[in-house]
Amino acid sequence: MNQGAFKWDDLRVFLEVARQGSVHAAAKRLKLDHSTVCRRIGKLETLLSMKLLDRTQRGIVVRDGVQEVLRHIERMESHANSLEDAIVGSRTTAAQLVRMATMEGIASCYFARRIPLLEGFAQNVQIELVSNPQPVDLSRKEADIFVSFFDPRLPGLSSRKMSEFALFLYCSKGYAERHDLPASRDDLASNHVFVDYIEELLAIDAVRWLSDVVRPQKTRFHTNSIIAQCNAAQAGVGIAMLPTFVAAGVDGLIRVLPDELSTKRDVWVSVREEQGSLGRIKSVMRFLTHIFEKDRGFLMGETRMLSD
Questions:
Q1: Cα–Cα distance measured from residue 16 to residue 20, given in angstroms and rounded to the nearest whole number
Q2: How many degrees, rounded to 5, is the angle at CA 171 between CA 135 and CA 295?
Q3: Which DSSP symbol is given to 115?
Q4: Which of 185, 179, 304 is nearest to 253 (CA)?
């Protein structure tokens, strides 16, 4: 085996195929064509004198005896990322991208409104904010940071609870005028209509929050979008269970039985362990820590609007 013949580009291709479980997906992510990926994998197998991957019904998987090789390549990637971070960080004008993925509501209604504060923690960092209704796989490098409403508890991830937020029932003033506000939980469940998620499209159990407080007999409108739920409630379609950051500032929405019926969810922030020491990641983590602490009252529904 000629060790000098190893090239990082070939090792990186193998690493990406292992993560994606698909040559096609790896090629797309690396911006290479399918044949180039196959050729580089074949070249690496020849140099190592061993087969690296198996094709199964679940996709392409790393062979049992190759896991230690993969771990070494992952450590190489971590060193390469640190080197890139140091080089980019030394160029004061160079922008550093950090991709953060989370759910639609908190992405659009909270983080997007807090981005101006990022400059105080990382002047040269740019956030790519991805809204995704499903859990994001950081091991496949779908994002650098994943903000979720649950603890992913996956190997290779560093996750911590960073905040929490409250949810209340909301309806429009027009709905309240037509139907009257419910006087009790039983009145709410029996005599009022709701808007909610489409059950079979839910990929995250944590967003099944309406069932925390009521089992409605009538649901008039279903959607996979929390923004659409908010808009429907504002239009008078029915009562919706909304996070504080979604309902805040929406004209005409009022809370329904707020002293009796509410729930809350935790906010977890996860990064890949090998990326946790990177400067750009640490800067964004400090930014997130700051805004969650600053906005605790808002997120828990104690104040109606974001502070300046």
A1: 6
A2: 55
A3: G
A4: 304
Q: What is the three-class DSSP state of 194?
A: strand
Nearest-angstrom CA–CA distance, 116 and 258: 32
Q: Is 221's pLDDT higher than 90?
A: yes
Rounded to 10 degrees, the C-alpha dihedral 143/133/268/287 comes to 60
Contacts of 241 (CB under 8 A, 6+ apart): 167, 168, 169, 170, 196, 209, 210, 212, 213, 263
Amino acid at 75: R
In terms of DSSP H, where are the helices of the chain? Answer: 8-20, 23-30, 34-48, 67-90, 104-106, 112-114, 173-179, 185-191, 226-234, 244-247, 279-294, 296-299
Strand, coil or helix: 149: coil
Measured N-to-C along each axis, helices 34-48 and 23-30 cross at an angle, to the nearest 10 degrees, of: 110
pLDDT value of position 91: 53
**101: buried, middle or exposed (CB in 10 Å: 19+, 13-18, 0-12)?**
buried
CB neighbour list of residue 242: distance below 8 Å, 6 or more residues apart: 167, 168, 169, 170, 226, 229, 230, 233, 253
**Which tokens sit at 223?**
């959607």
In the chain, the domains with their CATH numbers are: 3-88 (1.10.10.10), 93-163+266-299 (3.40.190.10), 165-265 (3.40.190.290)
Write the pLDDT tens digit of every residue in 9-37.
Answer: 788 888 888 888 888 888 887 888 888 88
pLDDT of residue 82: 61
- Mapping DSSP to helix (H, G, I), strand (E, B) and coil, where does residue 50 land? coil
Tokens of 200: 């079979």
List the one residue out of 262, 263, 299, 240 whose CA is nearest residue 113. Answer: 299
Estimate to the nearest angstrom the gap between the alpha carbon of 69 and the chain centroid. 30
The 3-state DSSP class for residue 238 equals coil
